[in-house]
Amino acid sequence: MRDSQLGIGVVGYGYWGPNIVRNFSINAATRVVGVSDLNPGRLGAVKQLYPGVETTRRYEDLLKDASIDAIAIATPVHTHYELALAALRAGKHVLVEKPLATSSELVTRLIEEADRRGLTLMVDHTFLYTPAVQRIRELLLSREIGDIYYYDSTRASLGLFQKDVNVIWDLAVHDISIIHHILDKDPIAVSATGSCHVVGSPENMAHITLFFADACVAHVSVNWLSPVKVRQTFIGGSRKMIVYDDLEPTEKIKVYDKGITLDGSPEDAHQFRIGYRAGDMWAPHISPTEALQTEVEHFVDCVRTGGQPISSGVSGLRVVEVLEAASCSIAKQGAPVLLREPHGIRQRARAIA
Amino acid sequence: MRDSQLGIGVVGYGYWGPNIVRNFSINAATRVVGVSDLNPGRLGAVKQLYPGVETTRRYEDLLKDASIDAIAIATPVHTHYELALAALRAGKHVLVEKPLATSSELVTRLIEEADRRGLTLMVDHTFLYTPAVQRIRELLLSREIGDIYYYDSTRASLGLFQKDVNVIWDLAVHDISIIHHILDKDPIAVSATGSCHVVGSPENMAHITLFFADACVAHVSVNWLSPVKVRQTFIGGSRKMIVYDDLEPTEKIKVYDKGITLDGSPEDAHQFRIGYRAGDMWAPHISPTEALQTEVEHFVDCVRTGGQPISSGVSGLRVVEVLEAASCSIAKQGAPVLLREPHGIRQRARAIA
Amino acid sequence: MRDSQLGIGVVGYGYWGPNIVRNFSINAATRVVGVSDLNPGRLGAVKQLYPGVETTRRYEDLLKDASIDAIAIATPVHTHYELALAALRAGKHVLVEKPLATSSELVTRLIEEADRRGLTLMVDHTFLYTPAVQRIRELLLSREIGDIYYYDSTRASLGLFQKDVNVIWDLAVHDISIIHHILDKDPIAVSATGSCHVVGSPENMAHITLFFADACVAHVSVNWLSPVKVRQTFIGGSRKMIVYDDLEPTEKIKVYDKGITLDGSPEDAHQFRIGYRAGDMWAPHISPTEALQTEVEHFVDCVRTGGQPISSGVSGLRVVEVLEAASCSIAKQGAPVLLREPHGIRQRARAIA
Amino acid sequence: MRDSQLGIGVVGYGYWGPNIVRNFSINAATRVVGVSDLNPGRLGAVKQLYPGVETTRRYEDLLKDASIDAIAIATPVHTHYELALAALRAGKHVLVEKPLATSSELVTRLIEEADRRGLTLMVDHTFLYTPAVQRIRELLLSREIGDIYYYDSTRASLGLFQKDVNVIWDLAVHDISIIHHILDKDPIAVSATGSCHVVGSPENMAHITLFFADACVAHVSVNWLSPVKVRQTFIGGSRKMIVYDDLEPTEKIKVYDKGITLDGSPEDAHQFRIGYRAGDMWAPHISPTEALQTEVEHFVDCVRTGGQPISSGVSGLRVVEVLEAASCSIAKQGAPVLLREPHGIRQRARAIA
C-alpha cells in the first residue's frame, strides 16, 4: 500500500516546516520520507515526534532519494529559488512557501523549468485554501455582494521580523494572493508607503493601494510592530459588504446587508441622492478544516493529474510582480508604479488553464 | 445673574447643532439666546426642547442681537468661511465646526480678521477635548511610550456622505488634528490615495500617509462606506504601544508593555539582533466626561481671558494645509506632496502663544 | 393645540427621572407641566434645561394641578405604593418605575384602585419596549426557535447599590418581566441563592432559577458588584438559539442555526443518538429607537383608549410575585418556593384583555 | 538514554487521548510505549502519526508490559475506577482524566490502593496547570484582591453530551477544582438546579451555588447546549476584581482596580455610605505554555520523588464530593445539601502534604 503513497521530502523545519510535516503525515496519500534542516536541534524534534522519518542536514540527500517524489520548501525566502530549482532539476515536484522567490525574473525561471519538465510547481499561498477565503470567493462569484468597490485589509502582529525581506514580502503577500484569487482581475498600478523603525532592517510597516481599471480599489496595511494581532479585511460591494476576521474562532465572515442607495434622477445627481440601507447581518457557517490539509490534498491531486494548481507558479508570479511594484513605490514615497499587462508566460499559462 | 452669562447664538441645527445647543444650555456660564436654521422643522424641534430660545431662519438676526456674544457655526463646510467672517465682522467670538474652511487661504483670512478684532476664533476639533486623547497626550509627553514610531488610525462607518467635501475633510480631519496635538511636530510630506464609488460624489474612501522629518510616520484610513463603525488607532513607540478604540465604552486606551529589543553589537546589526518583549497590558481609567462640555468651558475661558484656544485658528490652519496636500496627492494617485514650512501668520501665532 | 396634549407631572428627578422628562418632552402628544423632587439642586437642573416646566419640592402640588392628567413616578421603590395610590386617588393616570411596589399585596391594592376609578396603571418595565425584546418575542411566537429549552441571563455592573431593595428587585426584575412577556407562561416554582458582601445592606448578588411545568427553565444571574457591565441573555430552543447582548451597539440579537439532532430509534435512546448541527448565524437589524419613547407613546395610547398596557398593573403583579418567591428562597439557601396559580384579580384582568 | 525515560501507556484515544499522547511524546523524560483503544480506526491514527508506538485493543496488554511505568487513562468516566484500579494493582503509576471516578466511595478506594502501594495517583484537573489559573492563585495569595467576595463562572458550549455523566461531572468539575485550588477552603453546602432537554439523557444544563463558612460564595453555570462557547469567570474581592476569560488568546486575565467604598460612621450604616471606585485595569502577561505540558512534567516529578501531586487523589476526592452534593441538590430542585467536614483519609493526606 505504501508504494502508492507519494514520498515527500521537507526542507526546513523552523516556523512553518512543522505544519508542513504534520499535514503530509496525516494525509493518507503521502508519506514524509525525510526532513532536512541546518539545525540539529530541530532535527531532534522531528525524530522525537516522527521516529520513522529520516533527518539530514544536507538537503541534497533528499534530492537523491528515489523514494521522494516531491519536495516541500519551508526555508527563508532568499533560498527559495536555488532550492526549488535544484529540486525541479532532480525531477521532483515542488511546493514552495510564499513568496515563490525574491523577484519575478527568478519566479519566471522556476515556472519555465517546471513547464519544461512537466513537473508540478505550487506556491504555498495557504489562505487560498482556507474555508473562509473559499467562501468569500463563492459570495463574490455569485454576485451576492454586487460590484466590488473595495478590499481593505489589515494584517499586523508583533514580529517575526524577517531578515531577508520586508514586511510586504512577508505579510502583504497573503492579501495580494487573496485579492488575485477572489477578484479575478489584475491591478494596473500600485502606490505604497513604508517605514523602517529598526536601523539596518527592512521596512516593518507598509500601506499599499492597488488601483484597478475600474472603480475597484484594494488597500493592504501590514505591520510587524503591532501590540496586538490583527487579521481583518473589509470588502465593500454595491449590494452587500463583508467583514472577514481571521482571528474569530467561528464567525470569521460576516455579510452585511447594508449599503447606500442612490435616489433621484441622474440630472440632479448632486442633490439629496444618497440614502442608507441598514439591514441584517449574516455569518455563514465556516468549516474548521485546516487550510494546509486541503492544500496538501490539492498538491497531491495536481501531481497525480498534471493539473494546474490554484496557487500555481503563474499565480505566484502575479503576486511577486505586485510586491516588486510596491517595493518600488515605497522607495518613491508613494508615487504610483504601473504594472505591466499580463503577457508571455502568463498568457500561455492561462491558455492552458 | 444672567448678565454675567455669555450669550450664544447657534447657526445650524442639523447633525451636530443639537449637541452644541445642549452643551451650551447645560453650561452655567452660557445662555443660548437664539438658533438659526433654514429648515422650519428643525426650529420646531428647538422650540419643543428649549421653549425659551429664539429661533429664526435668518442667521443675520443672530448677528444683530446685542445679547449674543459668541456664535457657534454648525453648518455644511462650504458655508463656514462666509458665516464665520460675517460673525467676526459683527464683533462676535466664533466657534466653527471642523474643518475651519475649505482652503488654507480662507482659513488664513479668518485668522487675520479675528486677530485684527481681538476676537476668539476656535475650531471644533472635538477629539482634542476627549479625556482619551488628553490621556494619550500625557502618556506621550511623559516619555512612557518612548520614541514614537507610528500613529495608525482607521475611522470608518456607513455614511454620512457629505456633498461639499470628500471623506478626508470629514473624517481624516479628526486624526490630523489629533496627530498635531499629541505628536507636537509637523509632517513634511503627504502621500494619499482615494477612491469614489458614487458617480459625481467626492471620494468616499482614502488612505493617507504623513511623513515626518524623523522615522515617525502616521497613517490614516477613512471610509464612509464601511459596514461597521471603526474608530481605532494604534500608536507604536520604542518602549510601549497604545491601542485607542473610541468605541469601547470604558477601556478606550490600552497600553501594551510590548516591543522589540535589539541585541548584539552594532557591527553584526544584521545578525540575530531582534528580540520580542511581551509584557503586561494596562488600561488607565478614562473619565466619561463629554468632550463638548470641556470644549465649551475652554471656549468660554478663551473668550473671557483672551487666551489662545487649544484648537485655535492656527491649529485649524495646520490641519487644513494637510488636508489640501492630501487632496492634491490623491489626484496624483499617491505621489508625495511636500508641506511648506510653518511660517508667517503661524509663526506669529506661535510667538503669541 | 396645547389643550389636546396630555399634561404630565413627574415625581423624582434622580437617576431615571431625567429620561422620563426628556421623553415626555419630545413626545408631541404630551406636555411636562411640573416636576417634583426633594432636592433643590435637581429642580435647578430641570429649570436650566426646561425653563417652561414648573418645579416643586411637594409632590402634592402636582396632584392638585388640574392641567396634569397623568403622573410618572421615578422615586425609590419603598415610596411607589404611597405615591401611586395618592395619584390614583387624585384621579391621575399613573406610570410607575419598576418594580410597581414592595409586595404583591400592595401591588394588588394599586390595581384595584386603578380598576375602580377606570384609570391607567402602567409599570415602567422598559425592556419590554426595546426593539430587541420585541424582535425576540416575534422570533419565539413565529416558532422559528422551536420549543424553548431555556432562558439564561446575566445582568451585572458596578453599583448602584439600592438601599431599600436587594439586587433582584433592582435588576432581576427586568429579566422576570422579559421572561413573562416573551415566554407567555407562568413559572411554577423558584429556587434562588443570594449573598451580601456589605454588612447591613441587602443582597448584592443573586442567582435565580425559575421552573416551569414543562422542561423549560429560566435562570437569572444578577450582581451589583461586577467589575464590568454585562447584559447578556442566552435563549436555547429545539431549532435555533439566540444570544441577546444589550450592550452591543447594533448587533444586539444573534440567531444561531445550531443545535442537537436526535438520531436512532427510541429503543436505543442511550446509544449514539445525539448529533450536532452547526449552521449559520444571523443578526436581524434592530432599530435604534429608544425604548422609553415607544413606552411613552403606548402610555398615551392606553390613557386615551382605556386599553390595557403591555406592562399593566397585572403584569407588574406577576413580576412582584416571582420576586417575593425568590427572596423567600434566598432566605432558605435555594430551597424551592412554589408560586401560586394565577387567580382572582389576575384572571379577571386576563378576561378583560 | 531511553532507559531513564518513563514508559507511558495510554488507555483511550478519543477526544482527549491524542493530547495526552502528544504531550508525553514531546516530553523528553517520557516515552509513549503503547496506546489502547477499542476502536481500530483510532489505533490507525496513532500508527500514522507515531509509527513507533504499539497499539492494542486490549488495555491489559499495557498493564503486562514491563517497560510501562505509568498509565494515563482517557476513557469515559464510568470506566475510570475499574481501569485505574487495575493499573494500580499492576504496579503502575496512574494519571486519570477528570473526574477521578463516579463516586466519592470509589475515589476513596483508589486513593487507598495507591497509598498502600506507594504509587502516584493523579487526576487530570488540567486547568490547575494553566498559566492563567496559576497567576490567579498568586494574585489571591498575595492579597492584592483583598477578601474574596465571590467566584462566578460560566462554562458553556454546544456539546459534547456525555452519556454516562451529566454536565456538572463534565464541565463544572473544572470550576470546582479551580475553586478548591485558588480559594484554599472548603464549601459547607451546595444548592444546585439542573435541567434536561433530551429525554433519557443526563442534565445538560445546571447552576450551582457553593456556600462557604464566611460571606464568600461561588457560583458555576454549565451548559452543553449553548450556541457559543463561553469560558468566563468573575472573581470579586474587597480590593480588586478579576475577569478571567479563557477564550481570550492573550489577555486571559484582567484585574480591575474597582470596587465599592464604605463611607460614614457605622451608626448611620444605612445612609449614603456606599461609594464607587473606578480605577485602572491591568492584564498581566500570561505565558502561552500548554497546561498539559506542565502537568506531564509535574506527573513525572511526582512519580520520581514520590511527592503529592497538586491534583492528587485527595484533591480529586474533594471535587467529587461537591459533585455528588450538587447532583443531590439538583434532585431536590435547589434545596441545599450540606458537605461533610473533611476528615479521615483527607486529613491524613493533608498531614502528609
TrEMBL record, chains A, B, C, D:
MF terms from GO for this chain are:
nucleotide binding
Limits of the GFO/IDH/MocA-like oxidoreductase domain: 133-242
The protein's matches in InterPro entries, at most eight in alphabetical order, are given as: Gfo/Idh/MocA-like_OxRdtase_N, Gfo/Idh/MocA_Oxidoreductases, GFO_IDH_MocA-like_dom, NAD(P)-bd_dom_sf
Q: Which residues cross the membrane?
A: none
Pfam families tied to this protein: GFO_IDH_MocA (PF01408), GFO_IDH_MocA_C3 (PF22725)
Source organism, top-level taxon: Bacteria
Q: Which residues form the Gfo/Idh/MocA-like oxidoreductase N-terminal domain?
A: 7-125
Under PANTHER family, the record lists:
BILIVERDIN REDUCTASE A, GFO_IDH_MOCA-LIKE OXIDOREDUCTASE N-TERMINAL DOMAIN-CONTAINING PROTEIN
Name listed for the protein in its UniProt record: Oxidoreductase
Organism, scientific name:
Bradyrhizobium nanningense
Q: Give the classification, highest ranks.
A: Bacteria, Pseudomonadati, Pseudomonadota, Alphaproteobacteria, Hyphomicrobiales
